[in-house]
Amino acid sequence: MTRQIVRFTLNGTPREFAVAANDLLLNVIREQEKLTGTKYGCGIGECGACTVHVDGRPVLSCLKLAVEAEGCEVVTIEGLAKGRELDPLQKSFLDNNAVQCGYCTPGMIMIGRTLLDENPNPTEEEVRTHMRGQLCRCTGYASIAKAVMGAGKCESREFRLPSE
Amino acid sequence: MLSTELKSVGDGSWRKDGLAKVTGSEKYAPDVSVDRMWHGRVLRSPHAHAKIVSVDTSAAEALGAVCLTYDDVPKMRYNERIVSTPPCLYRDRTVVADKARHVGEAVLAVAAPTEELAERALRAIKVEYAPMQVITTMEQALKDGADPIHDTVHLDGKDVPIRNNVAVQRTIDVGDVEKGFAEAELVFERTFRTSRIYHAQMEPKTVTCRPEIDGGITVWCSTQSIHNTRILLGQIYGLPLNKVNVVKVALGGAFGSSIQMNSVTPICVGLALKAGRPVKIASTREEDMHDHVRYPSQITLKLGVRKDGTLVAGEMRAEIDIGAHNIQAYPFLGGLGGFWASLYKLPNMKYLGRAIYSNKTPSCAMQGFGAPQAHFAVECLMDEIAHHLGLDPVEYKLRHYVGLGGTFWGQGPASKCIIRSDGVPELLHTGAEKIGWEKRPKPGSQTGRMRRGIGMARGFHTSGVGHAKASGAEMIDYSGAIVKLNEDGTIDLIQSLMDHGGGTNHAIAKIVADEIGVPGHMVGISPCDTRTSLYDVTTHATRGVYAGGAAALKAAKSVKAQILHWAARVLDVLPESLVIEPDQELGQGVVYCPNLAERRMTVGDVARYLHINSLGTISAAESMRQVNCPPAYVSYFVEVEVDTETGQIHTRRAALGSDCGTVVNPALASGQLVGGLSKGQGYALIEDNHWDPVTGELASKGFWVDGKTPSMTESPLADDIMTHFAHTHEPTGPFGAKGLGEAAKNPAIAAFANAVHNALGIRFYEVPITPEKVLAALAVQDAQARDTSPSREPAAPAPVAE
Amino acid sequence: MYMNTNTRILAPEFAFARPASLAEAFALMKEHGPGARLLAGGTDLLVQMKMERLRPELVISLSGVKELAGITDGDGLTIGAATTIWEISKSPEVGARVAALREACNAFSTVSIMFMGTLGGNLCNASPAADSAPALLVHDASVVIRSVRSERRVPLAEFFTGPGRTVLKPGEIVTAVTIPAPTAGTGSAFRKISRVVADISQVCAAVSLVREGGRVTACRIALGSVAPTPVRVARAEAALVGANGTAEAFAAAAEIVAADIRPISDVRASESYRRHVARTIVRDALQTAWQRAGEGVSK
């Protein structure tokens, strides 16, 4: 298939990629850019493991053509922390032991982030509703719900890694 | 039990792999890529049972692809789960199939420079099949004249004929069952069924193989055992193990599905060797759903009791549909019988378990490995007996369970031990209080639309499969660990034991830190591979902390002794007078003499001293095998709410209790329990798989849209899941710890079934308890209440004989 | 027959175009005929392509056609076909006048799908289970269909012709959905039952009714997942018109629905289960709609 150039901002940096029409955003991120934090879980939008932000909105990158990201701002899990400063939600996941095998974790954090951006102090019902499309097989979800609820109560977005 | 002696064991610092996981930098098998890598794709049989008549790969090769067919692969048959010792290895697998035995079975594979090209090459290949009889039920399989799915199985050096598609059968006899039943005053018999559910681990099985210039291979794959994968690949491809390197990568969940070497792994190696370049095979979700499922069960359980409820005799007959391959049916059957024997005191028992082939996705271990199935039958029937006798199920079970001083069968008759720690009474009483057990309704007494009920079940899982015998074991069970002191006083822990999410490696690092006397952050978990680590059999049977941790502890003890030896030299005291304790301010371990306070130095000082003076590296490489397999007890109290108009069952509250001895990491342990509840809920209420009886095709087609599992919205609210731990100390475990992992799920389906009974007054003997089944059962109950249906089975079953 | 699909990639190859205007889109459609498919959010199209049920030669993305998105409030509501389900669920106008549609949007399987999916996409995909359709049906919605030369309006009740099929002719694009302003005293509601919450429905139902004092003066009941297309149940509607809005009346109407629908058994539910739970959700929806009608403006 013929390739065309698609240009979008990826984690704050303008990038361009040569893609075929049938290239998925997920695979451009993972295979061309080697950002493997975003996962393939099912390919059909059932599990949420491939969630990224496109122009601030949650998108299932396994169902998005790369060419459709033209001109957009794409953020992946790798783009949340600023250097060694974790996003409060990332810290909250660690504080609340919401990570076991970790495969679902990037998707959970990415979708959780979109809820908190709109609603910094969600109720548990709001968290459950917003995250219903993310599958986890390890944690049973309670710690993840607490992590999302807890992150909103953090005052600042700036966190340093604690010296252990 | 949280001991005041412990410093870092029991605290709640971030898990060591947590940072990598929340930032997306942790690498799992699907994230691996190597230079010049090609992509592989597997051609999978569309037929459930068919001879492969001919294969034409020319069109694929014309596209530049490399193909691997049955002609190309070694012809040896192997069993992919070499946890079992050779006399117990039922070998019916080849790298790709000589005959298609289930829809989705690997027939051949291709590799090409890109995934897209590999896809095109795959679709260009022509395969001619001669379809055979499709066998999807045990009845069909067992019938005389049924097409044999396997003609023979290779066992202990011989090709053993398979008759009537019975893959293997096991019996266990204890005491005198006939005499026992003759003495019984009441006899209860029921048949229970559990389903062939999918593991639904988030990571689809993936493998990358790079052929090395010396003829060896480097492999990154989804696995619960890098060493067993290495041994098998070495055997299959005739490679010396020092040229086979399997690299440890993070595992995105497994729940038993990668104890065996996964089917894509040897295929990928074959492709890479043939192509002479690295190849990666990344399973799609739909392939993965066709590749492995849980062992189902059909268990007929007969229990004879005295009028006071004492068990006098029991008979269990288990029929297990294992699908197209015998991955580990022999140990499964043994484990199932053994778990039954270990639940309650049963002086006379007879067990017959049969594993039967069918043309369906092969079954393999899944969290519990026969224990959930055994718990379902036993905990439900015991609940029924208690109700019949007018006894509180909790008190009834406490009176008759196998506890301290009793014999526990770790995983079948070959690994037994005497129980040395027992927190069951505490677990049950605490759980009962937390859930409000005394306030539960009378079964069948409610009439409203929404009906709540509380059910309980207790049980255990084993902590590894260690036992005392020096030879003749059925399973291999040992672990190794290397601990070394770095030149700045930090410590490397090199252990091939896989962590599939439970935090095992982190817990073991804490055990090492605490043994030596350094703060937790001073122990790092090293990346490793099979060439730089000691053998570990696999992470299964909840042996990670109990057995793997014990090996690391042994190495840590040696390292500590060496530190003390050298520190004594520097400080001019006797080594016996020194202790090492973590100093949080210094951030290091401090070696000091309590009697002579000024004689002190940090562990870092010791390391630097050794380094500057060229005295060598302090290290220890130890293997360890546990000689016990203590039960990790668990209790489940679950409250459900049934919507009698829609049949939907909601999980409202749960009180989950674990007796894992010393709780090495309370937050992670709690997380295991909550995770177990979620999977247990799915197993009990939602998950199932169906194969078309004519075509043998998986009804879901492998698409996750039709393989639903619980999400956050199906779960109870976070604070409605309560966890508690018993205060016990296991004398044979590292720092008094036992296992937890699989125990977290084992009693779940029984607890849910008992809860539904409490809510509705209806017993379900089959899972999943779906809304449709609930409505059908309510209709029957309704009809009986109106006395319009005399021919149906009674809703409140009575014992079969008095 | 089993086919080893590959959902990791989009295996079918196709050409891609992203017109900047409707005119360009029409031109592309004319050039390529039935081999072209329109792409809005992609949550149905890409899934069907990955499952190898659809193999278009040309995918025409509508993401560049700006005039297709947005909700305007005039004499009734006009919702651009490319408006996302999320945006509709958050619209105060929709919440105020078409409560059933807001509820239906919130019942879409997942939040990400709500952000990506569009109303036009949901309707043109024409699944019998389309969550948005029953709510639109009970509010007498119409679709605005444009071709290069003309524009026509088709009542949604006439739009679907079968599973995955609509009255759209080659060269036509749905550009908007119009919903007439509801009569005073209207209340509506939507309910859905599924295996798990984030799922395609086993049955879904929307109702709207007009309440005058204690009487129902108009009623619409529509269901999804019980027929080849989303359907209304006329006999149940008729039974309620003129009746008092009582629990008994709603239950009786729900009985008629259960009797009149002809669902099938499939992987998600059996025919009898669908019939059974349709009764429950229709009754519950009627109760809620009645309450909302009494409160004036639906919340």
Overview of the structural elements:
The complex is a heterotrimer of chains A (164), B (802) and C (299). Chain A is an alpha+beta fold and 164 residues long. Chain A is built from 5 helices and 5 strands, in the order ββαβββαααα. Chain A has helices spanning 25-32, 88-95, 105-118, 124-130, 142-151, and strands at 3-10, 13-20, 51-54, 57-60, 73-75. Chain A starts with a strand and ends in a 13-residue tail after the last helix. The radius of gyration of chain B is 27 Å and the shape is globular. With 802 residues, chain B is of the alpha+beta class. Chain B is built from 18 helices and 33 strands. A 7-stranded mixed β-sheet of chain B has the order 3-6-1-15-12-13-14, with helices on both faces. In chain B, strands 10-19-18-17-11 form a 5-stranded mixed β-sheet. Mean pLDDT of chain B is 94; it is low at 1-7 and 792-797. Chain C is of the alpha+beta class and 299 residues long. In chain C, the strands form 4 sheets. Chain C has a 5-stranded antiparallel β-sheet with strand order 4-5-10-6-7, with helices on one face. A 4-stranded antiparallel β-sheet of chain C has the order 11-12-13-14. Chain C has a 3-stranded parallel β-sheet with strand order 1-3-2, with helices on one face. The radius of gyration of chain C is 19 Å and the shape is globular. In chain C, β8 and β9 (165-166) form a beta hairpin. Chains in contact: A-B, A-C, B-C. The interface between A and B is large, with 63 and 66 residues.
Provide a concise account of the structure shown:
Helices cover 29% and strands 16% of the residues of chain A. Chain A has helices at 25-32, 88-95, 105-118, 124-130, 142-151; strands at residues 3-10, 13-20, 51-54, 57-60, 73-75.
Break the fold down into its secondary structure elements and pairings.
The complex is a heterotrimer of chains A (about 160), B (about 800) and C (about 300).
Chain A: E1 3-10, E2 13-20, H1 25-32, E3 51-54, E4 57-60, E5 73-75, H2 88-95, H3 105-118, H4 124-130, H5 142-151
Parallel strand pairs in A: 1-5
Antiparallel strand pairs in A: 1-2, 3-4, 3-5
Chain B: H1 18-22, E1 38-44, E2 50-56, H2 58-62, E3 66-68, E4 90-91, E5 99-100, E6 106-112, H3 115-124, E7 126-131, H4 138-142, E8 152-155, E9 158-161, E10 166-174, H5 177-183, E11 186-194, E12 206-211, E13 217-221, H6 226-237, E14 244-247, H7 264-275, E15 279-282, H8 285-291, E16 293-294, E17 297-305, E18 311-323, H9 329-343, E19 349-357, E20 363-364, H10 371-389, H11 393-400, E21 407-409, E22 416-418, H12 424-435, E23 450-462, E24 479-485, E25 491-494, H13 504-516, E26 523-525, H14 544-571, E27 579-583, E28 588-593, E29 596-602, H15 603-612, E30 619-624, E31 631-643, E32 649-659, H16 666-686, E33 721-725, H17 748-760, H18 771-785
Parallel strand pairs in B: 1-15, 13-14, 16-20, 18-19, 25-26, 32-33
Antiparallel strand pairs in B: 1-6, 2-5, 2-7, 3-6, 4-8, 8-9, 10-19, 11-17, 12-13, 12-15, 17-18, 21-22, 23-31, 24-25, 24-30, 27-28, 28-29, 31-32
Helix pairs in contact in B: 9-10, 10-17, 13-14, 14-15, 16-17
Chain C: E1 15-17, H1 22-32, E2 36-39, H2 45-50, E3 58-61, E4 71-74, E5 76-80, H3 85-90, H4 92-97, H5 99-106, H6 111-116, H7 119-125, H8 132-137, E6 142-146, E7 151-155, E8 160-162, E9 165-166, E10 173-179, E11 186-193, E12 203-212, E13 215-224, E14 231-232, H9 234-240, H10 247-260, H11 271-294
Parallel strand pairs in C: 1-3, 2-3
Antiparallel strand pairs in C: 4-5, 5-10, 6-7, 6-10, 8-9, 11-12, 12-13, 13-14
